[in-house]
Design goal:
- The structure is a homodimer.
- With about 400 residues, chain A is of the alpha/beta class.
- The first copy, chain A, has four domains: about 5-20 and about 170-315, Molybdenum Cofactor Biosythetic Enzyme, Chain A; about 20-45 and about 135-170, Molybdopterin biosynthesis moea protein, domain 2 (Alpha-Beta Complex), CATH 3.90.105; about 50-130, Molybdopterin biosynthesis moea protein, domain 3 (Molybdopterin biosynthesis moeA protein, domain 3, Beta Complex); about 325-395, MoeA, C-terminal, domain IV (Beta-clip).
- Chain A has seven helices and 28 strands.
- Chain A has helices at about 5-15, 60, 155-160, 200-210, 225-235, 255-260, 295-315; strands spanning about 20-25, 35-40, 50, 55, 65-75, 90, 105, 110-115, 115-120, 130, 145, 165-170, 175-180, 185, 195, 215-220, 240-245, 265-270, 275, 280-285, 285-290, 325, 330, 340-345, 355, 375-380, 385, 390-395.
- In chain A, the strands form eight sheets. A six-stranded mixed sheet of chain A has the order 7-4-6-5-9-8.
- In chain A, a hairpin with a 2-residue loop joins strand 20 and strand 21 (about 285-290).
- In chain A, helix 4 runs parallel beside helix 7 (about 295-315).
- The first copy, chain A, is elongated and about 95 Å long.
- Chain A starts with a helix and ends with a strand.
- The interface between A and B is large, with 118 and 118 residues.
């Protein structure tokens, strides 16, 4: 049985590069960028007017001019206009190119325009005001978004503006999610007295949807031959298998043994943690296997803590540091295990993240997950955790 | 020009109920539940064994018995077994029903089994240990997830376990996202010197994907007749129109006037805020119109602050309180406007959310959005904001 730290190190040492694919920008949200983005033009690409009003040559204003004849108009989308006479002005619209011979824009709010004469009604005019100058944000060929960035709407906008109709992103693994256990029936079946409905696979499948991963799923009964045949095929067809159940000490927990028979390298089995102690992790050639415990809270916790970290290390190269939250109640936990406590998150008005324990009735209490928002990681080697102490949290909503 | 508070009140007063639809559970992630979920059975539905080992009658242990003949086995998925002789035991697997005449489970780790005799190797055995009793988490017909909950993987698991193959959720609005502005060209076009590529619509469309909304999009040039014809049709065909551009003081900012001509009720135009001052909001019969400013930072900020709030009020009935973060640098802001400052978020080891300003070059600086994670709301009526002060943040990644 290994520590959480050791398990995470092994997970990190066994990341997989799934390569790169090119997809439409509009489908790339939440994906990991695998190219550096550089600007194809200066940003802005021209001296861009930022207010509706008039453009003048500041020199005229400085020399005392307060009334300017309107010579014409420069709209957004028009080629650059030219002010012919520096004593006059051009009306300019937000987004248009600043006309030649102009350097300053005065907004309509500070003007009184009558009979084609623009009277400036305030004295506080600065040279070059209300112009967003060419290259002010970025120069052509500047690095604008780095490789390994997770694409948010902000990057989508940048990509659009620099013409990235297609973007190179990390390919996502092809994943099969498998539940095992003879007691499990389908959602739409009426379980007998000794049966329950499958729920782990659905929690896992929808967690994967955060990454735009549409995984396949299957259920295998506790029959060694059936498990062997199906796993053998899935090892060939998928990049990742996520199993739940069959990894503990029970007579029908066939998974570790069958994995060994199929030539899968066991990387670890059992972690000093609660929930999730029986987690089994292995690899065979291109396929990585997360064989999670069958208890609903256990399998879900392992997804949040280990699968997410493995995917981030595989795709981004690093896992972001988790937030820390302030424990709101004393907690006593006796076993010498890292304890993943279910917590409800709230925010204080002084900028803190608060974590209120929702202990529930152990790793079988799937309903309790709905009362909480995150797992708080309480370290091994202590039994008492006091209100006011701060520990990392792993959010699941 | 109205305040942010007044604008939000108007947004709240103009929510729309889009009704309810029934969809498969596996597609319901991030949707808003529109039915109360009650347990169809006790949870757990039977006295559920939580460890692999043996089940005994504790009475025998208490009377001194430490060796138990193994009578048989109870696997998960088997109907309930019965212990025939209280001096013996049954092997039991995690997830199985506790056999009749048993009340206590001893795990394999605390046993030595040889020749069908299970020797208990520890003395610290509690009656009823390692059993998750019927109804311990919830009783049949208990409220387990409430109407208006946003469905996370935790609720997906609950729904699966209580047999909700189909779930009632708030119907999402049908949305059209429209950019206007003659200077805009498509992503895959090479812009001329006075042109730029469209980016606002992509930022907006991918923000909507957070809600599983696949919106349509269009671009309309600054031609009043074209705007009138298209908007007129879209008002009929969509629940929501989100426009960007054409709402300011420019000569070609036709949107407010055309909306009026088409009988759209203006609910407000212009808010005391930066960015996003020219935001126009209106409604006509079933259609709600967010006419956002054309500047990229402005339109994006209005989406995060106003559209998200409107959708949450429409679907959930309330908007969650935003987190507060600690400003990391002094900020000076002169105008008498609410200031939405772009900030980069990090976490301190004492449980705080930290916000580092990324001011950028104003509302046209779309590249700067990629340097930040959130908008921090700095209130009107002040010019100086000090490092260490705490303000609400609106996350966009």
């Amino acid at each position: 049985m290994i520590t959480v730290e050791k398990a995470l190190k092994i997970v990190r040492d066994n990341v997989v590069d799934f390569g790169i694919e090119e997809i439409p920008l509009s489908e790339s949200i939440n994906r990991v960028l695998k190219e550096d983005w550089r600007t194809d033009r200066d940003l802005p690409p021209y001296d861009r007017v930022t207010m509706d009003g008039i453009a003048i040559c500041f020199d005229s204003f400085e020399k005392g001019s307060r009334v300017f004849t309107v010579e014409g108009i420069a709209a957004a989308g028009m080629p650059q206009q030219t002010l012919q006479d520096k004593a006059t002005c051009l009306e300019v619209m937000t987004g248009s190119i600043l006309p030649n011979n102009c350097d300053t824009v005065i907004r309509y709010e500070d003007l009184d325009i009558q009979n084609n004469q623009a009277h400036i009604t305030i004295e506080n005019i600065r040279c070059q005001q209300n112009v967003h100058f060419k290259g002010q944000d970025r120069s052509q060929n500047d690095l604008i978004v780095s490789k390994n960035t997770i694409i948010s709407p902000a990057e989508i906008g940048v990509g659009a503006s620099i013409g990235k109709a297609l973007v190179k992103v990390a390919r996502l693994p092809k994943i099969m999610v498998i539940s095992t256990g003879d007691e499990l029936v389908k959602i739409d079946e009426q379980p007998l007295a000794h049966q329950i409905r499958r729920s782990n696979v659905y929690r896992i499948l929808t967690t994967l949807q955060d990454y735009n991963i549409q995984a396949d799923s299957d259920h295998i009964n506790d029959k060694p031959e059936e498990i062997r045949t199906k796993i053998s095929r899935y090892l060939q067809d998928y990049d990742v298998l996520i199993l739940s159940g069959g990894v503990s000490k029970g007579k029908f927990d066939y998974i570790p043994q069958i994995m060994e028979e199929l030539g899968v390298q066991k990387l670890f089995h059992k972690i000093k943690q609660r929930p999730g102690k029986p987690f089994w992790f292995g690899q065979k050639e291109g396929c990585t296997i997360f064989a999670l415990p069958g208890n609903p809270v256990s399998s879900f916790m392992c997804m949040q803590r280990y699968f997410r970290a493995w995917l981030a290390w595989s795709q981004v190269g690093e896992v972001p540091s988790p937030p820390f939250a302030v424990l709101q109640e004393d907690v006593f936990f006796k076993p010498d295990l890292t304890y993943y406590l279910e917590v409800k998150i709230s925010y204080s008005s002084d900028g803190k993240i608060l974590a209120t324990p929702k202990k529930g009735n152990g790793s079988g209490d799937l309903a309790n997950l709905s009362n909480a928002d995150a797992f708080m990681e309480l370290p091994r080697g202590r039994n008492d955790f006091s209100a006011g102490e701060v520990f990392p949290i792993y959010w699941y909503r």
